[in-house]
Write a structure and sequence with these properties.
Chain lengths: 112, 116
């Protein structure tokens, strides 16, 4: 079993839809949870960062962490064509500024 | 603007040659940098942790003699792929934590290596 599993894609939704992206993990030592967005042939950029369990909201994005279930989610409201990218979950036991374990990534396409 | 740069952004080389990739932190010092590799439609896999002033720490299965890492200064780390082969063709990405209590680390734009 991989340390981090991410829902396979690709995912295609119409503009305005609510998007739900999920990851599960097996390492109970993970305490720092991040979502990165990556455009083709570019480095990842940080979208959301959460420490331990709970919810965090930033504009159209909401990150949820359920440590008891070892499950994290990213919700995108009112999705836009500009949200089309690959989304990667990442986790760390030592901190968001430490080495990260990534999920495989899911490619999202938002249709106008 | 980008806070971590990489050079070159892409490189094509012949099998058996060595290729050096630079990772620079802009406007901040990074005592630690991370090197990742990403194959097509795969996730980023950590290769090694680059430490300024000391030896790099390699992840299991990564050949230290093949992937030479030098953290020459607080703003520069280099990855040299020695005697490159086609199976080394990949997207190499570095990241640098901002430090100073920040929880943020920034990723470079990546370097596409193609070995013929």
């Amino acid at each position: 079993q991989k340390e981090v599993e991410q829902d396979p894609g690709p995912l295609s939704v119409p503009e305005g839809a609510i998007v739900s992206l999920n990851c599960t993990y097996s390492n109970s030592a993970f305490q720092y949870f991040m979502w990165y967005r990556q455009y083709s042939r570019k480095g990842p950029e940080l979208l959301m960062y959460t420490y331990s369990s709970g919810n965090k909201e930033d504009g159209r994005f909401t990150a949820q962490v359920d440590k008891s279930s070892k499950y994290i989610s990213l919700f995108i409201r009112d999705s836009q064509p500009s949200d089309s990218a690959t989304y990667l979950c990442a986790m760390s036991a030592s901190g968001a500024n430490s080495k990260l374990t990534f999920g495989k990534g899911i490619t999202l396409s938002v249709r106008p | 603007g980008a806070v971590v740069s990489q050079h070159p952004s892409w490189v094509i080389c012949k099998s058996g040659t060595s290729v050096k990739i630079e990772c620079r932190s802009l406007d901040f010092q990074a005592t630690t940098m991370f090197w990742y590799r990403q194959f097509p439609k795969q996730s980023l896999m950590l290769m090694a942790t680059s430490n300024e002033g000391s030896k790099a720490t390699y992840e299991q299965g990564v050949e230290k003699d093949k992937f030479l890492i030098n953290h020459a200064s607080l703003t520069l780390s280099t990855l040299t792929v020695t005697s490159a082969h086609p199976e080394d063709s990949s997207f190499y990405i570095c990241s640098a934590p901002m430090g100073g209590g920040s929880d943020t680390q920034y990723f470079g734009p990546g370097t596409r290596l193609t070995v013929l």
